[in-house]
Amino acid sequence: MKETRTVEIRTAALEQDSNELVVTGTPVVFDTATQINDPMGQYTEIINRGALQGVDLNDTRLLYNHDLSRIPLAKAPKTMQLRIDDKGLHMRATLPDTEEGRSVYTAVSRGDLTGMSFSFTCDPAGSRYDVKTQTRSISRIKKIFECSIVPFPAYQTTSVEARNQMDEAVDHEKARQAAKIKLNQLLVRRV
Questions:
Q1: CA–CA separation, 89 and 138 (whole Å)
Q2: Per-residue pLDDT tens for 120-167?
Q3: Structural domain count of the chain
Q4: Which residues, other chains included, contact 16 with Cβ-Cβ below 8 Å and sequence gap of 6+?
Q5: Phi/psi-derived region of residue 104, left when phi > 0, alpha when psi is between -120 and 50, beta in every other case
Q6: Is the pLDDT of residue 1 over 90?
Q7: Residue ranges making up the domain that contains 103
Q8: pLDDT in tens, 173-184
Q9: Which keywords accompany this UniProt record (predicted)?
């Protein structure tokens, strides 16, 4: 199931002396706890260092505000370079010399657009939800579909995949607690 995350990170206009419209940013940040506001409740999410090992970055697009109906602003590896280090995923993109490319570039340069976001899928065993701490840890991302320059850098609603995983973890914890209570009741009866 495809998920979308928004990271509060500044993009910076580079090479202002050249004719190219270049922006840089960090759409994925490792080992940083972030509060996710979901319609079903709030939880903490952490993308672990190493979660992008072996990730499919081919054909990753740069969009404005996740708008798939518009022409992409850039595409890896030709007009967008993606680099992974111990802090996260970094991108450098040359925007097209079009009305939209110039508008986005100008808004980033002025500081009107300061956020980046990305949509992704997790490896089937790539995330874990801890009921007690209400924390989802992502250890393996399978594919990053797109990075977006966004006006509101706040995490968005999680997908059904994440919600189902959390519901299963809560149900498992409830069943474990119920079993503990029954075991204690049996032990009390024996005494």
A1: 14
A2: 898 889 999 999 999 999 999 999 999 988 887 544 322 223 444 556
A3: 1
A4: 109
A5: alpha
A6: no
A7: 3-190
A8: 788 888 888 888
A9: Hydrolase, Protease, Viral release from host cell
Q: In the structure encoding, which two tokens stand for residue 14, read together?
A: 């580079």
Identify residue 51 by its one-letter amino acid code.
A
Which amino acid makes up residue 93?
A
Q: What is the DSSP string of the chain?
A: --EEEEE----EEE-TTSSSEEEEEEEEESS--EEEEETTEEEEEEE-TTTTTT-B-TT-EEEETT-TTSPPSEETTTTEEEEE-SSEEEEEEEE-SSHHHHHHHHHHHHTS--EEEEEEEE-TTSEEEETTTTEEEE--EEEEEEEEEESS-S-----HHHHHHHHHHHHHHHHHHHHHHHHHHHHHHH-
Q: Cβ–Cβ contacts within 10 Å for residue 21, how many?
A: 24
